[in-house]
Amino acid sequence: MRVDPVLGAAGAVAADTAGASSIGIVRKLRLPVTSGVVKRVLLTGATGFVGRHVLRQLLAFGVPVTAVVRPGSSDRLGELAGLVDLITTQDLFQENAAWWQRACEGIDTILHVAWYAAPGKYLQSPRNLDCLQGTLSLARGAVAAGVRRFVGVGTCFEYDLTLGQPAGYLSTDTPLRPATTYAACKVAAFVTLAQWLATQSVEFLWARLFYLYGEGENPQRLVPYLHARLRAGEPAELTSGAQIRDFLDVSAAAEQLVAVTLSSRQGPLNICSGEGITVRALAERIADHYNGRELLRFGARPDNRFDPPCVVGVRASA
Hints:
Largest sheet: 8 strands, mixed
Order of helices and strands: EEHEEHEHEEHEEHEEEHEEHEE
CATH superfamily of the largest domain: NAD(P)-binding Rossmann-like Domain
Radius of gyration: 20 Å
Strand order of the largest sheet: 1-4-3-2-5-6-8-13
CATH architecture of the largest domain: 3-Layer(aba) Sandwich
Low-confidence stretches: 1-36
Strand content: 15-25%
Mean pLDDT: 89
Shape: globular
Distance between the termini: 26 Å
């Protein structure tokens, strides 16, 4: 039986957004392909919160994987490090198209998860501009190497969060209106790649993530914060908790992402649960695991008046 990650403990691993000047490939053992011909995927961000779960899912599908990581960071992959080919770089977002062309030799599909995501800093950081430029260099190199398919990872914050039918329920038809540098750079990557890759006969999918939680999450975020406070028997200070959000276990998000990566689907797509839950209800669910609802201090922190009341993804039909 799978343990519910909302009720289980959550750790913390920093996202791998780093990257080098020369390409270094280390050949490793791989899981055997159990059925059919599975072509090689190049994965960025493999040591990050989302990327490690994506890597685990790719290997579960029997997919040969080449992961781009920083030197010395492969220990974050644990036992998975011995099952993939590794390419090392000090900063993948500083590599040019020629470097990426060499890295993409023999690659069928790109799954680009890496992006700058330091908590409390990433939304307006100029580092997002580096990520945008580096993503375009990756795409140029991939095309030059003859890659067949490119899958990028976006965010629900690309959407106009004031719209949706009903309000706050966001489909891929919802207009885009980014309100941060992070979201704006994601939109720029999506629009540019959607237009250009089509002219290069490269399949393109853009997967927008919603509110993820689970193993490897940064301890500053809501779910691990609640676990830490309640486990210690200490009060957890919260806003009103009235906000409605689309929360999804990161392992389930990785399953969705890998499934669509290995499919023929193209265009934008939401990676989400498709169901809304208030922050209050989520906090109470976690507190019940510790018999600690009395420790929840709703209203101890002011609500952010710029925070949208509802952000829920609309899942695409099969």
